[in-house]
Amino acid sequence: MGSLSTSTPSQSKMSSRGSVTRWILADRVCEPVRIFQTLLAFSGNAPPQLALTRRLVERGHEVRVLAHRAAGERVRATGAELVEFVGALPDMDMTRPESDPLRDWEARTKWGAALKMRDNLLVGLLADVSRESAQILAGWRADVAVVDWMLSGAMVAAEGAGVPAVALVHCPYPLPAAGVPQLGSGMKPLGGRVGALREGVAQRAARRLLGAGLPALNAARAEQGLAPLDDWNEQLLDVAEIHVLSAPELDFAGSADLPANVHYVGPAFEPYEGEWRSPWPAQAGDRGEDPLVVIGFSTSYMNQRGPVQRVLDAAAELPVRALLTAGPALEGATLRLPANARAVAYVPHRQVLPHAALMITHAGWQTINAALADGVPLVCIPGRRDQPDNAIRVVAAGAGVRVSGGASARKLRGVIAAALHDPALKRGAQAMAQALARSDGARASAERIERLGGG
Question: Is the pLDDT of residue 290 over 80?
Answer without folding.
Answer: yes
